[in-house]
Amino acid sequence: MHFLLTNDDGIDAPGLAALEKAVRMIPGGTFSVVAPANEQSMCGHRITTHSPLKIEARGEQRWAVHGTPADCVRLGLFALDLKPDWVLSGVNAGGNLGQDIFISGTCAAAREAAYHQIKAAAFSHYLIRSLAVDWDRVAQWTHSLFTTLVSQPLDDGEYWCANYPHHPPGEMQMPAVKLCKPERSPMNVSYASHADGYHYNASYGERPRIAGSDVDVCFSGEISLCRLGL
Question: What is the pLDDT of residues 180-201, one digit of tens each?
Fold first, then answer.
């Protein structure tokens, strides 16, 4: 299989390196990296159509794009003429749960692939600020998770969205993977008034969580897995 790898944290992000490491563990797997040159977090499904897109070669089968994750997928398919069996996006440094799915550039890359009838998955890692991320462990989890996803059929327009919980670094058994639905409750959004305008103020870790939703599963220490459709 050939994979197109991308993300929204940028081509030099540790999460993308973990995704590359996971794919290297797949026997016979090859990959191309088409990722944003700079961080594009929370850009949603924005695409560039009214200005040129600059691409920089960063090695063999590796390109940095001055655009969004959705741009990266489109360029990979229609400018670089890549023929991936899968598009994998991530591993994002931060959760993409519930309402985040529509804001996330990570998820948008997988969604763009699904529009073009290419199998896709978005991987994200919920963050607790006081804990370091064990990216080597993330690579192992991603490889293990993908080996189960590859055998699960996707209907037309479907893609996977996985979110890892944040545990202390070190050896541990891979958490249980639970198939679930995105959280319906929105974030508790508030704004603080300052001299220069209103500052966004919300606690990600204190967001509402309906029992069994992706937020609840991930915050409970397990891997949430959503089968999403267009």
Answer: 999 999 998 999 999 999 999 8
Do 7 and 106 meet the contact criterion of CB atoms below 8 Å apart? yes
Specify whether the CB–CB gap between 69 and 40 falls below 8 A: yes
DSSP 205: G
86-93 and 62-65 beta bridge pairing: unpaired
Write down the pTM of the prediction: 0.96
Which structural domain, as residue segments, surrounds residue 6? 2-229
- Do 177 and 223 form a contact (C-beta atoms < 8 A)? yes
What is the number of structural domains in the chain? 1
The length of the chain, given as a count of residues: 230
**Is residue 75 a contact partner of residue 109, using CB atoms and an 8 Å limit?**
no
Are 210 and 216 in contact by the 8 Å Cβ rule? The answer is: yes
Block residue for tokens 């069994």: 212
From CA 141, how far away is CA 123, in angstroms rounded?
10
Please list, in sequence order, all residues whose beta carbon lies within 8 angstroms of the beta carbon of residue 180, skipping any fewer than 6 positions away. Answer: 212, 213, 214, 216, 217, 224, 225, 226
The answer for residues whose C-beta is within 8 angstroms of residue 156's C-beta and 6 or more apart is 117
CATH, residue 58: 3.40.1210.10
